[in-house]
């Protein structure tokens, strides 16, 4: 997230990056790289066969991006109570 903030990407670009990461993570979930150490390392990013984690980065990165964008709108809202009304 810090790297993306450093590049000052627009919200649309952040959403596209998060969606692409989520799609890639879903497609690669459970992949076996053939080397146990690589499975453990890359398991934190894509959820490999031997390095299983419940929250691989690629699948879950969309949630911090959504919170970041929501927070930008919430901070700018003049009336916080009205912001939550539909």
Question: Can you describe this structure?
Answer:
The mean pLDDT is 88. α2 runs antiparallel to α5 (62-76). With 86 residues, the chain is mainly alpha-helical. The protein is built from six helices and no strands. It has helices spanning 2-6, 11-28, 36-46, 57-60, 62-76, 80-83. The two termini are 30 Å apart. The protein has one domain (2-83). The longest helix has 18 residues, at 11-28.
Number of helices, counting only DSSP H or I runs of 4 residues or more: 6
Radius of gyration: 17 Å
Distance separating the two termini: 30 Å
Largest sheet: none
Strand residue percentage? under 5%
Order of helices and strands: HHHHHH
Strand segment tally: 0
- Residue stretches low in confidence (pLDDT < 50, at least 5 long) are none
pLDDT averaged residue by residue = 88
């Amino acid at each position: 997230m810090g790297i993306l903030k450093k590049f000052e990407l627009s919200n649309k670009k952040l959403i596209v990056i998060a969606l692409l990461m989520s799609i890639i993570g879903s497609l690669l979930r459970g992949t076996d790289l053939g080397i146990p150490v690589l499975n453990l390392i890359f398991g934190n990013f894509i959820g490999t066969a031997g390095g299983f984690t419940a929250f691989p980065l690629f699948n879950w990165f969309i949630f911090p991006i959504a919170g970041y964008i929501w927070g930008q709108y919430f901070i700018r809202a003049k009336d916080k109570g009205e912001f939550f009304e539909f």
